[in-house]
Write a structure and sequence with these properties.
About 40% of the residues lie in helices and about 5% in strands. The chain is mainly α. The chain has a three-stranded mixed β-sheet, covered by helices on one side. It has a two-stranded antiparallel sheet with strand order 4-5. Strands 6-7 form a two-stranded antiparallel ribbon. It is globular and about 80 Å long.
Length: about 650
């Protein structure tokens, strides 16, 4: 049964119907072009809005959508909004549940080189008689003891490592169609998944190297792009010591400077870096090991945390990254570990003990641990702090305060981890090592990576095999990624992921070939930061420790869709800032006719080959047709075409 839905924007800026993922995907097969409307009303080159009516068998898909063009009035200043839209739903942990509480080099795999596609160390195979259930692998020394069978009386079940499937044959699946700029399904898929948005240069690189060659090259480019890093030389907080960042932000009482610089540095890197997979992985770990210290005295430490914890380890080893995170003052402050004192008469603070279990490693797994284990973990980290004396030579450096440390026995997971009475830091160090090597942590990390690169609900088979590779390679991230990219599910997953607002903004900038301002104090930098912040997806500004969700259910709403359409339109037609504009010459390309122009833009933006009806709808909206010479199109018409394509449902997914 079909349902009539009109998606449009009224003068108040509200929408008449909600979007959902099924509606979006249902619209794709119909070549629907969604309206890139603005609150000031909409107009077309011909003075009339074009209404396109279609029928769909999907009850969640709309029947009627207005194709309208963005207003060319100056964009509303996002900073004046009283409330930025938050995630569409409450925070969602990639394991399927929410949280219970609130520039350097990268370590390489063994040998110092990147493994080639198909060369990743596979987990050992375990032979089991058919048709009996697979036997669990024997635990490694120091690993958790085998768990009782599900349903046993003990409520805390520690499962054995998942039985791995045989590793896939070397080499990525062959492309289903020839790779080409016009019809290269594989090129678009890989470009949209491994980057923040395809560009002609990325597509050409894929065609030149081949799909596997492009992936291998991106895996090898696993450190910051020096060309882009050089553009950050004028930033007062990026590339500085913790002490210098603190002086630039806190002592000057101008926290806004640090926030703008942090957001702009991330936007520049995501938009212009050739090391795209590296930047994608940085964002993934930023959300996984989230800190958020805005409006606090030590806010500048978020920048230090990003530069010292996330970026150096983004494609190294997860174990190293977790250790660096645990010891960093930003995390110590954010989750209150810095003041966690075993002698506190009011009791210890359990925040970090909870989150290292629930978010960073084991996931929300009541069958694995309980509140007693959370408390034990909190006791293990007592005494972990940092030097808060601004006059000290070690100001902002990690310290272990023995006087605050819990010195009695500690036990977690029914004795799977035990530590005798001690006065040393090594209790928590041993706990971190135990947790990163636990089979459930491998599951948590594998699921997060599969959600990022495959879809929101990856199969248990893929998650289990990925977890086995992660464990077999001692938490090395690159071999784990290779396994995912080598999977059939990755090859079949085109269009299964929804772009979050930040990703959509960066994808728009990349599609336009926009050069961003490198002066963080400029009007353009502030306008872009305000625009990103207004959509509720600014890096490092998620208050809760779970970070921004990577699942569509957190973002699919009418308000978010309209915000994105307005934002992308403002970027394309230049109403956001005079310093951030598209290159009309690049948009026109070498097309002779308006029909060729639309098809060329669709390819450039990663939409692939769009249906003829979509091409007609877009051209009609700007007062042209397929035979109209490109030379006869005004700059405004060209930009309007680009705006409509950036509002197309295909541009909203990756």
């Amino acid at each position: 049964m079909t349902r009539d839905v009109t998606i449009e924007q009224e003068a108040s800026g509200t929408a008449t119907a909600a979007l959902n993922r099924r509606a979006v995907l249902g619209a794709l097969s119909l070549g629907l072009v969604a309206a890139a409307c603005s609150s000031g009303g909409s107009s077309t080159a011909s003075g009339e809005a074009v209404k396109k009516t279609v029928k769909s068998g999907d009850s969640a898909a709309g029947d009627e959508i207005k194709v309208a063009l963005p207003s060319r009035e100056p964009a509303e200043n996002p900073a004046e909004k009283t409330e930025a839209p938050a995630d569409g739903v409450s925070s969602i942990d990639e394991s399927g549940s929410g949280s219970g509480s609130t520039t350097g080099g990268t370590a390489m795999p063994s040998g110092g080189r990147v493994p080639s596609i198909g060369e990743v160390k596979a987990p050992p195979k375990v032979e089991t008689p058919a048709p009996a259930a697979p036997a669990p692998a024997a635990p490694a020394p120091g690993a958790p003891a085998p768990a009782p069978a599900p349903g046993a009386e003990n409520p805390k079940v520690t499962p054995a490592a998942p039985q791995p499937k045989p590793a896939p044959a070397p080499g990525l699946p062959k492309p289903e169609v020839p790779l080409s700029l016009g019809t290269g399904v594989e090129a678009v898929r890989v470009a949209n998944r491994l980057t923040f948005g395809t560009t002609p240069a990325v597509q050409a690189d894929i065609l030149d190297r081949g799909t596997a060659g492009f992936i291998e090259n991106q895996l090898a480019l696993n450190t910051p792009d020096p060309v882009v890093e050089a553009k950050l030389a004028g930033f007062s907080t990026i590339g500085q010591t913790r002490q210098a960042q603190f002086a630039a932000v806190t002592n000057g009482k101008d926290n806004e400077v640090g926030r703008i610089e942090l957001t702009m540095a991330n936007a520049l890197r995501a938009t212009e870096s050739e090391n795209q997979l590296f930047e994608v992985m940085c964002q993934l770990w930023m959300d996984h090991l989230n800190v958020s210290l805005h409006d606090k005295e030590f806010e500048s430490l978020v920048t230090a945390y990003q530069e010292e914890v996330i970026r150096p380890h983004a494609m190294g080893n997860f174990s190293d990254m977790l250790q660096a995170s645990a010891e960093h003052p930003a995390m110590l402050i954010y989750l209150d570990a810095a003041t966690n004192d075993a002698n506190n008469p009011e009791g210890i603070n359990e925040n970090y003990g909870r989150e290292i279990l629930e978010l960073h490693t084991l996931g929300k797994s009541p069958q694995i641990y309980d509140e007693d284990d959370v408390r034990a973990a909190a006791f293990a980290f007592t005494g972990w702090t940092f030097d808060m004396n601004q006059n000290s030579d070690t100001f902002l450096e990690f310290q272990f305060d023995e006087g605050r440390h819990f010195t009695e026995d500690i036990s977690l997971l029914d004795g799977a981890f035990t530590r005798g009475a001690t006065t040393g830091k090594d209790t928590a160090d041993a706990l971190i090592s135990f947790l990163v090597n636990h089979p459930q942590t491998a599951q948590t990390i594998a699921r997060k990576l599969c959600i990022r690169f495959v879809d929101d609900t990856p199969s248990d088979e893929l998650v289990n095999s990925t977890a086995a590779v992660f464990a077999a390679n001692n938490t090395a991230i690159i071999p784990t990624l290779v396994h995912i990219f080598n999977s059939q599910e990755f090859a079949d997953s085109d269009g299964e992921k929804f772009r979050r607002p930040y990703e959509g903004t960066i994808a728009t900038l990349r599609a336009m070939g926009t050069a961003l301002p490198t002066d963080p104090a400029s009007e353009g930098a502030k306008a872009l930061r305000d625009q990103i912040a207004s959509m509720g997806n600014e890096p490092w500004m998620k208050d809760t420790p779970d970070g921004y969700s990577d699942q569509a259910t957190a973002w699919l709403s009418t308000a978010n869709a309209l915000d994105f359409w307005n934002s992308s339109a403002a970027l394309v037609i230049g109403t956001l800032s005079a310093e951030i504009t598209s290159d009309n010459t690049v948009l026109r390309g070498g097309s002779a006719t308006a029909g060729e122009l639309v098809l060329g833009m669709a390819s450039q933006f990663g939409l692939g080959v769009i249906p003829a009806e979509t091409q007609t709808a877009v051209l009609t909206a700007v007062g042209a047709n397929a035979a109209t010479p490109v030379a006869d199109l005004s700059d405004a018409q060209v930009e309007d075409i680009a705006s409509l394509l950036c509002a197309h449902p295909l541009f909203c997914i990756r």
